[in-house]
């Protein structure tokens, strides 16, 4: 099992200390198709759980990426500016979006683990 | 009826295939109370000859600009358009195609839009341009919206040198969203200090080049003031031909150029359709409104073009789109591109030099006639202080067969300080004789 | 397939001619115009004269004419063939319209000439306004909007201005699921939030859901009628009643007016504002994406809140009201664009209307609806019909007929290109899966429709026969085959640059 936690909006987080790395799931990138652009937030911005954080674009669609946890954005993955395809190639690795210094650890604990998320996506058809 | 191919026999056959007795049955979802049983109260159909006779008659009730000495500008400048332009844009493959959503059968439109975008970027000195907007005024308004997105600030400062119709259009588009618009008073003296109006909430400053009174000024100090405060500089241009003679806004720090491009390739058209140009810096491209053609390759590896970055647009982003704009001015953009292709570097610069030289001659001759020319600097338009109300004078001269210029009071009514100001423009279409007649008439009247 | 195909030396294939960019045909000093030497003068450019080269290419007139002629040959067009693009009304563009718009008495007029010198132009605008008001049964029309979306903005701003004038701030606009994307984008620009109203199982707005959503906070309901599923909203009178009972305004998107022109007047339906696309219903050319023209008809409740400028009958002739201070009994909210409207489109539209007359325009909608229903009848056993007919001027299918074939709506459309047709509108409206929306218009002959029907049957049979690979490979007979849109969007190349600079950028 991985150490990732998932939201119902198909974001994942990986918690290290009080910093959560955030991206979108393999399921989500497959649904989107070829990612062509990621609009990243500015570091230093405060985000609320389930509030708008990023926009991820494929050729035919643009989708909001919500902050799965509240906190302050401390870093964004600037490699995505040049290589948005990283989101398709390694959604839970090099294709991460942002790091959030969390304000409420219980928000992470309440998220799905990998098994629960797999069951959730299976039920989504 | 000449545009309708179906015969009565066709219609009967088709109704049979559908399985209904009459066309009225196909309208059965229309509530009967609102389904008209007879044609509306308008004349019945007419042949080409009759329509042509009526419309030619209406056209004859107007004084065409080319039939008299003509000096109007104020956002619409009269130029000669080479005959090849109108011939080419009337090719049915350009005229009667839709937006190039199917790139395999739209490479012609996509390639000329790519050429258009490149030309606009080159002449404005900017990195990228879109595939056109409705007109210069709507480009200006869209620039204000874009600056708000880029800076995440809400307020806009409009120069008193901006064409009043552009100011009004921008105010309209921003009317119902949270934004403070500061409109500077008309800058008759050319002494406006717009830099001092920039604050922490300023998204952009919008200035015009040349300004509405015809003056040109170095934009770099204003650009520096904007950038020091985190605001963008939007440069509006009414007359794109000026770019053949003047330094490009992109070389003076502009972040967005919003311009009227109709001067190239397109007739005056009594105000429409016109051609909005919109250019910006590479880093802001994803915040830019409007359509974009981009280069790519096909499955055989051959170079081709597609509409791209369309996720910014309304048909995908809906209420989160960068703009609600859908239609552009494609055919006007084509006319612009063909005209500029015919001109080339040498022709474009020569056209601009010719415009400027004519206007210098006019300025000198007006001064010789004892008239007060306000401008120290100008491109192809200048402001004359007449000492009497300009509106009635222009009407009087029109009755004598001279279209003398645009009274500033037409744009700024009720402002006593500008009531005796006349905007006069001399393009390459103006002859020596035209100038002689204008100067004599103004001298006599003023 | 092309068993005898071979690579030519030039890359051309007979009439299919390759053509580089104008920038790649440059020779310094060449020009396609002859201009006189400027008279020698001291410049007054204030030290701002251009001192660097622009980089525009130099070509002679024959080169420019050949270049753009070749480009034109890479386009499909209504002049060349059947163009059943749903909701776009790709009808024949009469050439009389072009001729009339080019009369110097219309084309060579400056928008700020004295009114006395443009009486014929103002009369033309007034006459067109009369035709539009009569055809729609509405008391007023704002002529200046430049296109459909611009007209939407105009109409919704009038509604907001009217609400503000009665001190009635409202926050929401209701839009059906099936609406065109410009509707929510426009609502957002007017400062409203957007709430979607679902359709019922007959492809119309769910009246119960509409009534449930309507309250004192709703500014307007934006409906397209006939709707984007090609159906007449048969409960529109009830919708209108409910909208007005809630104190809201009823906006109608008039993109599909071609279905009902001469037969149904929006004014009789209780509509408060509706834009018309002169470039759809009234045959002004689409020109590769514009220019358009989008006059907006307004009800009595909104007429006072039209944008500037407009034409009035004065004592000495026609006059233009250009400033709020000159407006009598009206409260204009401002100006939508620099000048009076799309005069070039007005001339074309009036020439079209006069050519058809009241009788011909009624025949237009009759034939447009007949043609669409003919396609519905002939194709409903072949493709899968989304909703039962009769349809109006366009017919909507979904991709059910392609189930299990590995052929998508997109593949099917690309195969239509090889058969010599422009594809229909695809994947819109969003309410059905893999939508195929076909609008034949009244200017297609029965022979043209029959050929199309045969071709569609042939393609559907091929798809079902397992020829998915051929569909995925289509088109093959076009100047370019499928283009890499992902690459274009990931690293946008939006302009030409000289080779040297391209090279640097690539490093």
Q: Which key phrases capture this entry?
A:
heterotrimer, B: 446 residues, alpha/beta, 7-stranded mixed β-sheet, 4-stranded antiparallel β-sheet, 13% strand, C: 507 residues, globular
SSE topology:
The complex is a heterotrimer of chains A (125), B (446) and C (507).
Chain A (H helix, E strand, L loop, with lengths): L4 E2 L4 E6 L2 E6 L1 H7 L2 E5 L6 E2 L4 E7 L3 E5 L4 E6 L2 H4 L3 H4 L8 E5 L2 H5 L4 H11 L1
Antiparallel strand pairs in A: 1-2, 2-3, 3-9, 4-6, 5-8, 6-7, 8-9
Chain B lengths: L7 H11 L4 H4 L21 H13 L22 H7 L2 H4 L11 H18 L3 E2 L6 H16 L3 E4 L5 H10 L7 E3 L18 E7 L11 H9 L3 E6 L18 E5 L15 E5 L12 E5 L5 E5 L6 H4 L12 H39 L3 E2 L7 E5 L4 H10 L6 E2 H4 L9 E5 L6 H14 L1
Parallel strand pairs in B: 2-3, 2-4, 4-5, 5-6
Antiparallel strand pairs in B: 1-7, 6-7, 8-9, 10-11, 11-13, 12-13
Helix pairs in contact in B: 4-11, 6-11, 7-8
Chain C lengths: L60 H12 L22 H7 L2 H4 L11 H18 L3 E3 L5 H18 L6 E5 L5 H8 L3 E5 L9 H7 L4 E7 L11 H10 L3 E6 L18 E4 L19 E3 L1 H4 L6 E5 L2 E5 L21 H37 L4 E2 L9 E4 L10 H10 L6 E2 L9 E3 L7 H19 L3 H6 L11 H6 L8 H8 L1
Parallel strand pairs in C: 2-3, 2-4, 4-5, 5-6
Antiparallel strand pairs in C: 1-7, 6-7, 8-9, 10-11, 11-13, 12-13
Helix pairs in contact in C: 2-10, 4-10, 5-6, 10-12
Can you give a write-up of this model?
The complex is a heterotrimer of chains A (125), B (446) and C (507). Helices cover 25% and strands 35% of the residues of chain A. Chain A is built from 5 helices and 9 strands, in the order βββαβββββααβαα. In chain A, the strands form 2 sheets. In chain A, strands 1-2-3-9-8-5 form a 6-stranded antiparallel β-sheet. Chain A has a 3-stranded antiparallel β-sheet with strand order 4-6-7. The relative contact order of chain A is 0.26. The mean pLDDT of chain A is 90. Chain B is an alpha/beta fold and 446 residues long. Chain B has a 7-stranded mixed β-sheet, sandwiched between helices. Chain B has a 4-stranded antiparallel β-sheet with strand order 10-11-13-12. The longest helix of chain B has 39 residues. Chain C has 507 residues and is α/β, with parallel strands linked by helices. Chain C is 34% helix and 11% strand. Chain C is built from 15 helices and 13 strands. In chain C, the strands form 3 sheets. A 7-stranded mixed β-sheet of chain C has the order 1-7-6-5-4-2-3, sandwiched between helices. In chain C, strands 10-11-13-12 form a 4-stranded antiparallel β-sheet. A two-stranded antiparallel ribbon of chain C has the order 8-9. In chain C, β4, α8 and β5 form a beta-alpha-beta unit. In chain C, α4 runs parallel beside α10 and α10 crosses α12. Chain C starts with 60 loop residues before the first helix and ends with a helix. The mean pLDDT of chain C is 95. Chains in contact: A-B, A-C, B-C.
């Amino acid at each position: 099992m991985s150490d990732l936690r998932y939201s119902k909006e198909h974001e994942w987080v990986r918690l290290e200390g009080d910093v959560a790395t955030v991206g979108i799931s393999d399921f989500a990138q497959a649904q989107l198709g070829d990612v062509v652009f990621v609009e990243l937030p500015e570091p230093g911005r405060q985000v609320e759980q389930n509030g708008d954080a990023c926009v991820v674009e494929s050729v035919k669609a643009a989708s909001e990426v919500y902050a799965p946890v509240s906190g302050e954005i401390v870093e964004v993955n600037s490699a995505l500016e040049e290589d948005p395809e990283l989101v398709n190639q390694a959604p839970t690795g090099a294709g991460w979006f942002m790091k959030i210094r969390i304000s409420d650890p219980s928000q992470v604990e309440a998220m799905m683990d990998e098994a629960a998320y797999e069951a959730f996506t299976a039920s989504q058809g | 009826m000449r545009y309708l191919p179906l015969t009565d026999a066709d219609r009967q056959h088709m109704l049979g295939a559908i399985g209904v007795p009459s066309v009225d049955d196909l309208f059965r979802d229309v509530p009967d109370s609102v389904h008209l049983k007879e044609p509306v109260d308008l004349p019945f159909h007419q042949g080409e000859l009759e329509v042509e006779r009526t419309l030619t008659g209406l056209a004859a009730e107007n004084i065409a600009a080319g039939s008299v000495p003509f000096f109007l500008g104020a956002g619409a400048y009269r130029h000669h358009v080479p005959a090849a332009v109108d011939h080419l844009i009337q090719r049915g493959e350009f005229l009667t195609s839709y937006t190039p959503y199917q790139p395999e059968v739209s490479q012609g439109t996509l390639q000329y839009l790519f050429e258009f975008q490149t030309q606009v970027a080159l002449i404005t000195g900017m990195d990228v341009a879109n595939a056109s907007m409705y007109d210069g005024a709507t480009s200006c308004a869209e620039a204000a919206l874009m600056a708000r997105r880029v800076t995440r600030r809400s307020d806009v400062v409009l120069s008193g040198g901006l064409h009043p119709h552009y100011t009004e259009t921008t105010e309209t588009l921003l009317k119902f969203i949270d934004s403070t618009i500061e409109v500077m008073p008309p800058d008759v003296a050319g002494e406006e200090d717009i830099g001092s109006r920039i604050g922490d909430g300023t998204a952009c400053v919008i200035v015009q080049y040349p300004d509405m009174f015809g003056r040109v000024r170095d934009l770099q100090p204003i650009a520096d003031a904007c950038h020091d405060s985190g605001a963008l500089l939007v440069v509006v241009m009414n007359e794109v031909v000026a770019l053949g003679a003047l330094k490009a806004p992109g070389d003076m720090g502009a972040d967005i150029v919003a311009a009227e491009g109709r001067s190239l390739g397109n007739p005056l058209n009594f105000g429409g359709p016109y051609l909005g140009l919109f250019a910006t810096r590479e880093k802001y491209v994803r915040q830019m409104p409007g359509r974009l053609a981009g280069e790519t390759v096909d499955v055989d590896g051959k170079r081709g073009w597609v509409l791209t970055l369309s996720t910014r647009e309304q048909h995908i982003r809906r209420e989160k789109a960068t703009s609600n704009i859908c239609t552009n001015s494609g055919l006007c953009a084509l006319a612009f591109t063909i005209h500029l292709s015919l001109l080339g570097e040498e022709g474009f610069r020569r056209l601009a030099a010719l415009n400027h030289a004519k206007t210098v001659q006019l300025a000198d001759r007006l001064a010789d006639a004892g008239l007060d020319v306000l401008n120290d600097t100008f491109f192809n338009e200048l402001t004359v202080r007449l000492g009497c109300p300009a509106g009635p004078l222009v009407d009087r001269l029109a009755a004598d067969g001279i279209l003398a210029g645009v009274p500033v009071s037409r744009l700024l009514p009720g402002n006593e300080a500008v009531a005796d100001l006349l905007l006069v423009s001399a393009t390459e279409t103006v002859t020596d004789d035209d100038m002689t007649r204008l100067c004599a008439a103004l001298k006599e009247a003023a | 397939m092309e068993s005898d195909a071979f690579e030519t030396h030039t890359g051309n294939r007979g009439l299919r001619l390759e053509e580089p960019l104008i920038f790649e045909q440059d020779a310094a000093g060449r020009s396609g115009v002859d201009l006189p030497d400027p008279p020698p003068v001291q410049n007054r450019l204030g030290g701002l004269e251009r001192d660097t080269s622009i980089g525009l290419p130099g070509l002679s007139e024959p080169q420019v004419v050949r270049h753009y002629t070749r480009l034109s040959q890479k386009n499909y067009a209504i002049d060349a063939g059947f163009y059943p693009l749903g909701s776009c009304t790709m009808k024949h563009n009469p050439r009389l319209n072009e001729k009339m718009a080019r009369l110097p008495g219309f084309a060579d007029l400056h928008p700020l000439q004295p009114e006395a010198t443009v009486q014929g132009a103002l009369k033309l605008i007034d006459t067109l306004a009369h035709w539009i008001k009569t055809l729609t049964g509405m008391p007023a029309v704002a002529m200046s909007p430049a296109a459909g979306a611009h007209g939407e903005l105009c109409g919704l701003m009038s509604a907001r201005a009217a609400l503000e004038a009665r001190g009635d701030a409202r926050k929401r606009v209701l839009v059906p699921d099936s609406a065109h994307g410009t509707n929510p984008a426009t609502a957002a620009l007017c400062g409203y939030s957007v709430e979607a109203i679902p359709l019922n199982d007959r492809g119309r707005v769910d009246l119960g859901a509409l009534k449930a959503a309507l309250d004192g906070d709703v500014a307007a309901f934006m409906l397209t009628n006939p709707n984007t599923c090609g159906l007449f909203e048969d409960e529109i009178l009830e919708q209108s009643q409910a909208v007005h009972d809630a104190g809201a305004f009823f906006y109608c998107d008039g993109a599909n007016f071609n279905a009902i022109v001469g037969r149904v007047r929006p004014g009789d339906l209780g509509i408060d504002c509706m834009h018309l696309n002169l470039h759809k219903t009234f045959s002004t050319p689409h020109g590769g994406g514009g220019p358009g023209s989008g006059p907006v008809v307004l009800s009595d409740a909104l007429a006072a809140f039209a944008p500037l400028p407009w034409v009035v009958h004065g004592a000495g002739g026609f006059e233009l009201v250009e400033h709020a201070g000159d407006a009598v009994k009206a409260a204009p909210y401002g100006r939508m664009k620099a000048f009076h409207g799309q005069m070039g489109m007005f001339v074309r539209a009036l020439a079209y209307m006069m050519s058809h007359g009241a009788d011909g325009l009624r025949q237009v909608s009759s034939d447009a609806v007949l043609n669409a229903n003919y396609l519905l009848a002939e194709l409903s056993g072949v493709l899968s019909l989304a909703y039962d007919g009769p349809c109006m001027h366009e017919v909507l299918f979904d991709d059910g007929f392609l189930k299990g074939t590995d052929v998508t709506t997109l593949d099917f459309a690309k195969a239509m290109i090889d058969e010599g047709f422009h594809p229909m509108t695809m994947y819109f409206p969003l309410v059905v899966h893999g939508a195929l929306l076909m609008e034949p218009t009244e200017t297609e002959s029965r022979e043209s429709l029959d050929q199309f029907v045969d071709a569609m049957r042939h393609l559907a049979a091929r798809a079902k026969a397992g020829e998915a690979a051929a569909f995925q490979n289509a088109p093959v007979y076009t100047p370019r085959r499928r283009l890499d849109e992902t690459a274009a969007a990931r690293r946008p190349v939006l302009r030409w640059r000289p080779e040297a600079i391209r090279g640097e950028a690539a490093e």
